[in-house]
Each structure stands twice: as structure tokens, then as C-alpha cells.
Design brief:
Layout lengths: L1 H12 L3 H17 L3 H10 L1
């Protein structure tokens, strides 16, 4: 859980508040669809 919190905090530091708020949902979606890391990152950046 600490890694998730750190990632969320880093997104917020970068001014990516929407991505930080959407992180849980995007991770869940990537896990269900067995996305690649690059696909996950692209989905997160589209938020």
C-alpha cells in the first residue's frame, strides 16, 4: 500500500491530480485486462 500512496503523491507533485485520483481505477482496469506497463501508463496519462 505504501508504494501506491507514493505513486499517488508523486503524481500530485507533478500537477497530475486527476491521474492521482484515477490511479486505483486505472490499476484495477490494467490488472483485469492484463495490460502491458506501457498500456497502463498511456491509460493513466489520458485521464
Amino acid at each position: 500500500m505504501i508504494e501506491l500512496e507514493q505513486a499517488r503523491h508523486r503524481l500530485e507533485e507533478l500537477g497530475m491530480e486527476q491521474a492521482a485520483r484515477s490511479l486505483d481505477a486505472v490499476l484495477e482496469s490494467a490488472s483485469r485486462s492484463q495490460s502491458t506497463y506501457l498500456s497502463f501508463l498511456n491509460e493513466l496519462l489520458e485521464v
